[in-house]
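[Q] Does anyone have a clean structure-token version of this?
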Amino acid sequence: TTYFDEKNLGALPKGEAKMYGDPIFASMMQAKILCVVYMINLGYDVLFQDVDIVWFKDPLSFFHDESNTAIQNFDIMFQHDGSGQMRYNPLSANSGFYYVRANKKAQYVFTSLLYDGAFVRKCKSHQQVLVQILLEHSSFFGTKVKVFDKVETDMFPGGFHYHQDWDVMHDIVSGKSNAYILHMSWTENKDNKLKFLRQMGEWYVQDQCIGHDYLELVEGGGQVTDGSLINQCCSAEPIFSCHFRDKPSKEPCFNSPCIDKRCRQFWNPMAPEFVAELKAKR
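[A] Here you go.
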């Protein structure tokens, strides 16, 4: 179900942000706050996630597991951002993936965030403002906030792991990981996110549907009830392609260029399995 409240959300951009913090990115922040405020004030717990997240297994099963008593008393739980920037310290909570309970303390946190809209606009992101409000409310009102450690836990990896912690990423591509999701944060723009997800084998949108809005895909712009848009745009199998050999990938991308100056290869071409394969080809 898609819901849009024009009276409160106003005019939202039709195009995507070109990079983190640009005017389009900043203008979307208020919408990300409002959608949570609406739901928790209606009495619903909320799992909020950005659209650059893929699921390996249902994360709700983690948050709803009552046998996991260690997390049941927290009001809000966040993925770790991975950043050590001063503006996110000391929590470094990532505002692109979190679970919030519909109680008075959480309602107060997000209502306060909504009222700080001018500050959000100035910071170009609501994450910095949210972290400061979480600190205040945990100190003054006893709001219980949990940020899952980026090293000690492996359930919710993100851009930090994709770009820097390749032990975690090798576990993911080999199927050994306990990860529920992968958040393609820490990535400059939409184009790179798509390429990274494709070479991770986690992309399922057909090329003919990328970069087109609904009216361009559906003749007449009417409602589609027969599933034809799914058949047109969605793939049952992952759409894989190599783009950068110095970024994690499901399969080796030895013949692809590097995107970073350091050019550190994710797959080691001298690993025994690849050397044996090369000898066999000779």
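[Q] Thanks! Anything notable?
[A] DSSP finds 13 helices and six strands in the chain.
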